[in-house]
Amino acid sequence: MVDSKREVDNHLKKTCEFFIQNVSEDLFGSIKQLIIKIQAVISMNSDANAPKVNLNQQPFAKPQKLQDIIAENYKHIKKKLPDIGKKMSLYLSNTEIEQIILKRVKSSLQQLYIEMSQIIKSNYSDEEQLIIACPAPEQISLWMTIV
User: Fold this and answer.
1) How far is it, in rounded angstroms, from Cα 57 to Cα 103?
2) CATH number of the domain that 134 lies in?
3) Per-residue pLDDT tens over the stretch 75-87
4) Domain limits at 59?
5) Model confidence over 28-47: pLDDT tens digits?
6) How many CB atoms lie within 10 A of CB 70?
């Protein structure tokens, strides 16, 4: 005999995981794809037999381009995250569950920006980092509490 409560709980958990993943991917915008491209160039440069490629000379990774993508993504997050919270309130009517889900979404966003920040610090000059203006981990934490 199948325990119906356990079955419902498992289904709810899978649905919440799916929701968290989809919302996170939507909020990542083009930053996730950018990180994948940058990591491909970095891994090519680590191959001793491959010719070295200047990351900051790649059209998709020029400092101004990165700055544009990061600024655009910030606006996207600032616009979408409150709407997501409102929709969850409408459908869930349970602030504890809403907070758990939002915490996971915010955590994944924070990790993405930390990864981006580390890539920028290790691959761009101080001047280029100023142009890019990627938020520091502390700023990201602040964003997540405000949004």
Assistant:
1) 37
2) 1.20.1280
3) 998 899 889 989 9
4) 4-45+55-146
5) 989 999 999 999 999 988 88
6) 21
